[in-house]
């Protein structure tokens, strides 16, 4: 069986092939010449490099081919499949700038030891002329022929880009070609290099079969030097070209590949901007810290001292020149990716950077950054929530955790199932070293942070399940030797995976425990989104187990003992009877939102499924439950809304929410609970653009599955889980 997938930006057709023995192979094939030989000739040269490179033979850095096939028109290579994600995927999900730089810097240090010295020879004096300037001219001619409007831009004496006046292409190229500093920064040696070392060609390997943290794919197959234009041999190169490719993918190329670029203007006046996304901070931090990270890498700097007579600064200037050349040259490559809309912006960014390189060579500036072209994080969208997950999930082991306990209540006959599922999520949705306990068994060596599973003996309403969970947790902590003072200060996130038979979650077929067909179970996504929650005191954030969410603003510090996290109503809420009833109830309650909420006068808010109760409140509630109070609804209806609504309104809400049983008894029980809670409820806004995901009903669960692969927030969460798994496996950044 063959599953064919065209990789975006690939010069070949790439298929994942299942062999008869169940193993997977990656099949790459190409039958066209491509842009500037970026087709079959590229694939042949790539195979030639992988066959003859000493670095490939002596190290495991490169993914080595299994076989190749050469036919009249088609050339193919088969590779082993590696369980992995690309470094670009993890970076764009928001892996953090430090972790990204640790990874790239470590890789470059390894290549300085084991790749670049292989077969190194003296570099020709005109290397920069041929490798950069000639290639720029060649690629610009290709792009100009395909995009006629580019011609006027190329021939203009000046271009205004984002308010900055740039020298025209011909003039800046003439100045660079004749600049005396070019000889000073030229390489002294050329040798074996990967040649296309961008983030998309670096695999982050995970799983039991992984032998190393990163592996390289797609070494360069397109000639840089005209000397190699008519051959299928791989050509030696300048190691600084590796750095320039990485810098190129950090500074803007990856965001262009992901569709975040916007171009405005015409003639000779243009504006380029980039949308904010979940990886924006990661990419900006890594781009800004790129050279500093290299300068502190001992293995890398030993190589630099050997081959750079003019020092690190000369290398930095050569890398920036290569980065600029990559943008201009890639304008032609965009034609091969069928992204003709990228041609002009790639050229313009390259022109901007060529102007900057000229200024750097003239000692006018150190480097021109594009930071103000990128939208800022304060622009409210769900990247705020993704960033909060990243900051919590990827904290170093020495850093203080943002929560102490994550507890999950399940029917007692599902405890083993939950334990097994949590083991599959260990190191993905919570750090690898986090212990998992069952509250039925005390542990004298209890360590925080931890996960605790409560097994409930029978079906309970959501409120009852929460209060029973509190009782189980208190008994477990006491038996494990936790003092009362420590216990009262614990910051607990509580997830419920059980409810009575009338609720959306019964004892059977809990969708929270269902495997996720796209790589993450609903429980996994709930555990990830729980990382957004913050505490200012001991207590519990209670999640209802039927939803998860991505916030679009940072949570304000909690000031009340009872808080409800709110979000705007989703489009599907408008016609949903239960959600309509809930919105009406909130309006009648007139519960005050914090003054920092963007539109406090508008009642168009909904509960997100998260409620905070302080330790004092949960203690009072459990005491009431011990006296026989049997709540029938959930925490929101029984404790918060029952304090504000009249009996008739509350009963209508109770019915609309689908709660079963004696409504008068339910109202009476709710009033007993309310009577022990003195605190006023506070609404805490999650932002105006919260992404809400529901999976309580079968229809909602199916909808969740259908949107999973195309939803950017769900993909960011999945890749953050993959980032944690990869970092934990290899202890990177620790």
TrEMBL record:
Name of the protein: Uncharacterized protein
